[in-house]
Design brief:
About 40% of the residues lie in helices and about 20% in strands. By secondary structure, it is an alpha+beta fold. This is Cytochrome c oxidase accessory protein CcoG.
């Protein structure tokens, strides 16, 4: 970010967080808290449920490492289709750039796995150990049977939940019904067990212990997010003009008469923050945009009979220049946003068109190199080929094989092959012709493979015919 005077001071990054202190987030209710839990439920229903969804006798979503196939409902991708995975990553990156330029760290605050699982683990901790004051008191107390029981119950629940998460994760890379059977019969393979435990350990460690440290120090997104920010990016903003000077006062007191702003310096915005920052010190890279401080501050404002919005979603320019909501929306449409949106739209349309028009058939033609040609009993000159026909769709198809584009040559072997969806069929093809039917040496020929019932599903591959 370039140095500017005026509005740039609003998002000055101030290292005011004690990185050593443990953060005990206070529970809060409100509109944004409800939205966070809506996204927790949505993401986890998809994560834990999608791998169990059947589709045409198999798993609807499966990245089968052993078979080297990626199933997504009717779409079957092979190693040759890596381009689609690359496009998917590019689209994800562009979407992140676009949404960050427009609305800051919404991904971090609502759908990032670190945020989602930390929210779940905090809920478990609250149910077992109590609210923030009880948890602080429990940690500070000497060890006792009660403390041992509470800590054991909490960590046992965390571990069970983490193991289920690890099991589900591995279920996206091998058929989950087979994995479940292996678990129930104690016959799980070493690699499957390793990845279940590894992912469970990562979930347990990240959401149970590292928590805010992931967002503060480990996650690279927190470091480069400001490259995508500008003064019109939506952020969590504290209205300094309205809030300062801070100070406690009676509810009936007139803050102007006391020379005070609307901030009563209660500190609740700090207590509810999952990363333990004070948003009143300006935007910091530790802020994940979860809006917990907005819910907390609005409740305090309600109690004091002050207008809401002392802490709110806004922009640098809006806070300093007092823009209205419509001004914020209008200024959201700016060059970098339009560029990101245009590129993202074009790539999305191109990818969707490519998948929609993709022919579910791939053919590889391998010529027998041991014998360039041979003379058959009937006097014909024959060349032998090995055809690998991949039915990349999801339904069984019958394919017809023919030779096109060359007069005098014909197929003398079986011309049809039936291949199950998502499988590879191998066919030996023998092409023959009378001596002199084509010029001596190598002649280009074309194998045409087409679905008997759907001629649009067809592929033509070139090879060489050798005539002595």
């Amino acid at each position: 970010m370039s140095k500017q005077s005026g509005p740039r001071k609003v998002i000055e990054i101030k290292p005011v967080v004690d990185l050593e202190a443990k953060v005990y987030p206070r529970s809060i209710s409100g509109a944004f808290a409800r939205w966070r839990w809506i996204f927790v439920w949505l993401t986890q229903i998809v994560f834990y449920g999608l791998c169990w969804l059947p589709w045409h006798g198999r798993q609807a979503f499966l990245m089968d490492i052993d078979a080297r196939k990626f199933y997504f409902f009717d779409l079957v991708l092979w190693p040759q289709d890596t381009i689609y995975l690359v496009l998917l990553m590019i689209l994800g990156a562009l979407a992140l750039f676009l949404f960050t330029a427009v609305a800051g760290r919404l991904w971090c605050g609502y759908t990032c796995p670190q945020t989602v699982y930390t929210e779940i683990f905090l809920w478990i901790e609250k149910v077992i150990e109590g609210e923030r004051p009880q948890r602080i008191k429990l940690d500070a107390a000497p060890w006792s049977l009660r403390k041992l029981w509470l800590k054991t119950a909490k960590h046992t629940t965390w571990i069970v939940f983490s193991l289920w998460t690890g099991f589900t994760f591995v279920g996206y890379f091998m058929p989950i019904h087979e994995l479940a059977n292996d678990v129930l019969t104690f016959s799980m393979g070493a690699w499957s067990a390793f990845w279940v435990v590894f992912y469970a350990f990562a979930t347990y460690g990240n959401a149970g212990f590292l928590r805010e440290q992931m967002c503060r120090q480990i996650c690279p997104y927190a470091r480069f997010q400001f490259v995508m920010f500008d003064p019109d990016t939506l952020i969590i903003a504290y209205d300094t003009t309205r809030g300062e000077s801070r100070g406690a006062r009676a509810k009936s007191a007139d803050p102007k008469a006391l020379g005070l702003g609307d901030c009563i310096d209660c500190g609740i915005c700090v207590q509810v923050c999952p990363t333990g920052i004070d948003i009143r010190n300006g935007l910091q890279n530790e802020c994940i945009g979860c809006a917990a401080c907005i819910d907390a501050c609005d409740q305090v404002m309600d109690k004091m009979n002050y207008p809401r919005g002392l802490i709110r979603y806004s922009t640098e320019n809006a806070v300093v220049k007092r823009y209205s909501a419509m001004d914020i929306v209008r200024r959201a449409v700016r060059p970098r946003v339009l560029i990101y949106a245009a590129i993202l739209t074009l790539l999305t349309v191109a990818t969707a068109w490519s998948i929609a028009t993709r022919i579910p058939l791939k053919v590889n033609v391998l010529k027998d190199r041991n014998t360039l040609s041979r003379e058959a009993d009937n006097g014909m000159i024959e060349n032998t080929y090995r055809l690998q026909i991949m039915n990349t769709g999801d339904q069984t198809r019958k394919f017809h094989i023919s030779i096109v584009g060359v007069e005098g040559l014909r197929l003398t072997s079986d011309e049809e092959i039936t291949i199950v969806g998502g499988e590879i069929g191998t066919q030996t093809a023998v092409v023959g012709g009378e001596p002199g039917a084509v010029k001596a040496g190598a002649t280009a020929i074309k194998f045409h493979v087409a679905d008997v019932n759907d001629t649009k599903v067809a592929v033509t591959e070139e090879s060489k015919f050798w005539m002595p």
